[in-house]
Structures are given as structure tokens and as C-alpha cells.
Fold:
Amino acid sequence: MSEIRLETQALSRRFGALMALQEIDFQLAAGARHALIGPNGAGKTTFVNVLTGVLPPTHGRVLLAGRDITETAQAERVKLGIARTFQINRLFRGLSVLENVCIAVAERVGVARSMFYPTGWHTDVIDESMSLLQTLKLAEAASHRVSELPYGRQRLVELAIAIGLKPEILLLDEPAAGVPSAESHIILDAIERLPEHIAVLIIEHDMDVVFRFAKRVTVMVGGAVFAEGTPKEIESNPMVREVYLGQGAQWTGHA
Amino acid sequence: MNTALSSAGAASLAGPGENPAVRALRRRHHFRWWEALPWILALAYYFAFPDYLSFGADLLIATLFALSLDLALGYAGIVTLGHAAFFGAGAYTVGMLAYYEVWNEPITSLILGASSAAAVGCLSGLVLLRTSGITLLMLTLCTMALLEQAANMGHAYTGGFDGLPSLTIAPVFGIFEFNPLYANTQFLFSLGVLFSCFIFVRSLVYSPFGQSLTGIRENALRMHAVGSPVRRRLVLCYTISAALAGVAGGLWAQTNAYVNLSALDLDRAATVLIVLILGGYGRLYGAFIGAVVYLALEHFLAQLYPTAWQLGLGLLLVAISLFARNGILGLGEALWRRYRAERKSP
Structure:
């Protein structure tokens, strides 16, 4: 197994009486393609929120390449290479697609605090953002306002902003959620084309996607890790099947 | 929509530099021909209405004040009802320095006024900008009320309710007499100050810093997630905005040759908000149009209906908020875009 990029030790988060996360020990390897699955309310998004620093854990630790970042602020973690997308779009809706990506790139490059040198002269930022949009096949829409785009395209902008941060670790919270299935392949193609060195954790409900994309799968139930293994192991695990079949979901399973 | 998409698609084949979005972003900060209009009109006003120059100076000061609010409200999305706190801080700094004959050189006085307003903005911003929405609105209002009461109770120094009358301001550059009898000097001085501040604000909003403020306005949560130090940016923006409001307040004290509590009251804070919403916020020139329309309405409606002129203003505001959420300037932009679209596809 290759080097561990992101690790949690006994990570817990409580909301009042609800234990949203219980003693989670989790490891994300460099270049991983790791899927996080589980029924609704299992704590998957809470887990991502604690990893990115949106929520502090009740106890436990988050380690980035062995360094304790449990107390590190969200924006600092981004600088350390952790980026995420959101389950519900969080975009700069009134701005153009190009500007959405430029904002992220400018923050990463460190020019965003520059006050008297016009944005238009930072051609490196603009060109990088534009070529990113081209690889995501969004170039044609670059001048459109995000709010004018169809939902599937908006999900792609959501992904573009995160990729523009050039992360080491990318956390994708249901990247294709709410996208009509005719369009979802655009997003999945984009995810499959991500640079190999990036460690990717993807929360996903669609089992076809999970088995097509992931090399490792973690199943969460009720805030705890229920099972972990390769897609084959998870698929053949009778307890996991029970949890999912109990939910009425279907395995189509072609790992 | 379809035609726009296909033409953009054809352009993108020619390489990233040719994409219309890239071109637009690279040229966004370029000066357009019509941007000279406000300044030409201001100079034309100077020659056309020599008897109304003190009204003209009021107009320029209102514009500057609204411009400072635009930076905080229109660009960074900081909802505030207490912007007169900074106007007052600038006005009282300039006023007290002049009244007690400590310092009355007009330009450096304005810089001192801006500094004290910036200090108030920075200190209050560090606390207030941890909140947002209605909480922030109420806290900005409270800050202003506290300052107003401080100015009221410190009457030994501030003149309390009566304020500080008959300030003497030194001549501009040591040459041009500066008092209400020389309205032409006051007008041109105010115009110069407004122009300098405008160039400053304009370069700020077209910089990456300005773009990050827009990002915070559009989605603060996402800005955290792209690694932006959101609170630091907001405090910085609020401080700069406060400094500019302080310049406006200082200029107001200088041109009127007095300061009183009206510099700090809710009426002034509400008026600047109305001016900005009338003109259109987040658009740089909304402050200009709003100030002209508001002061002209106040002037002419008050002559026509001295008792009920605010009714006309109220009706206009209702119309603006119902039919033109982006103000007069936003309405103009929408009409212009429709005109261009119709001309393109006959």
C-alpha cells in the first residue's frame, strides 16, 4: 500500500444526542480512488465537513501526511492541498463561468490579495482557468453566467473550481447528484480523467459509478465504518448487501 | 441563447485567447468613452450654474459617500445601516481639529479624517464582521448610535447637540480661499477629491482583491472552501470603505464650515443607502446617478410640495424596488442589452 495522505484517528462528531460520527479510523492513500457509500444520514457529508475543517470534531484527530491538522482552519487546509465539492452547488452564481474558476485559481496562486493590478493583466490566471475549462469541455460556456447554465453544467463548474485549486486530496460529495442520467457521463468522464497523483474520495449513491471508478470502498452506517475493502469484497459482503437491499437499493454490480 | 452558444463555440476553436470570456475579462478594466461623461458634466455644471456651486459640492460629497458604501455593500455584500458612523468620524475629526485650531490645512485634514474613520471601521469591523445578515445590520446601527451618543455627551469637546460652528479652513494649496463664500473653490476641491477617490475605488474593484470581494458577496461559504481568508478580506474592505466615508464626512465639514450630530444620525445613513439603491449598487456609477437623482428630487419636490416631498421619493423607491431591483443604472443596462439583442436578430 502506498503512502498515506490523509488519515483520521478515532474521529467523532456529536450533534446534541446524535453521534453523527463514531470513532472513525480512516486512511486515504496517495493517488487513491476511494468511494464512501452508505445510506442517507450515515454521516458521509459530516465526515467530509470534519475533514475540511467546516466542523470541528468532538474528539479524535485528522492527520495530513502525518501532520495533525485537527485545529487547522478551513482556508489553511485548502492551502495544504485539500479541496472539496459540495453536494448542493455552492457557486458564484452571478458571475461568469470563467470568473468562477479564476477566483479559485487566483486564491491558489496567491494573487487574490493584489489590489492595484487589474485582474485582466493576470493573464497567467486567466489562461490557466480557460484551459481548465477546455479540458472539462466548458469553454463554450465560459462567458455565461453560472445561474444561466443547465444544472449538469453547473455541477461541472463545481468540479472545475475544486480542480483549479490543484489539490493533493479531492473530496467529491455526490458530484453527479441531481444531474439527469443523460448528462451524468460528462461529470463521470471528467472525474476519471483527474490526474493520477490526486487522492480522490468520492461520496456516491450510484453503485455503477462506485464500481466503475473506485479501487477501494468504505461503507458507513449510522456514523460508523461498517465495512471497508476492494469493490469485489464489498460487493460480496453479505452484511453490506443486507444493509443496501434492506434499503431497497439494487446491486447491478459489475466490478 | 443558441446563436450565442454557437458563435462562442466557433471562437473557442481559435485558442483560449480568442474566447469571448477571456477577452471580456482582460478588457474589463479598460476605460470606456462614456466614463468621461460624469466628469465632463461636472465641469459643465461648474460653468453653467455658478450660483448653485454649493449645491453641486453637496452632490459630489453625497456621491463620494455613496461610492464608499458601494464598496462595502455592492461589492463585498456587507449589509450595513450604520455607514454614517464613518462619515461622522471623518467630519468630527476634521471639525474638531479646525475648531480648536490644531490643524486646518484641507488636504491633510481629510487624510486625518480618513485615518480616524478607518480606525473606527477596522476596530468595529473586527467584531461586527463575525456576524452577517440582520445581526450585522443591527450591530452596524448600534455602533453608529453609540458614536452619536458619545458625540452628544462629550459636548465639552464636540459641542454636543449644537455642534461646532464657524470652522476656519486654511486656503487650498495655501492660495485658494476655502469657505462657503468661495463656492467655486469648494466645488472644484470636492470634484478633485471625488475624482481621486473614484480612481482608487475603480482600480480596487477591478483587481483580484475586488474579484475576491465579489466572490464573498456571491458565496462566502465557497470562498472559505477555495482557501480565501474571508474575514480578513472583509475587514480590510470595511476599513477602506470607512476611510472613504471619512473623507466624505471631512469634506462635508469643510464645505459647510460646521459639524453637528446630523453627520452621525440614522437619517444620513438611510439617505446614503437610498441614494445607492436608487442608482444601482455594485456598479461604481450607481453612486453618481443615485446622488444626482436623489438631490435633484429633494430640491425640486421640496419646492413644489414643501410639506410632502418625501412622498414622491417614497413612490420612486417603491417603483425601483418592484421593477428595477438593480436601480436606475441596472434598468438602463437591461434596456441597452435588449436593444442590442433586438438589433442583432431582426
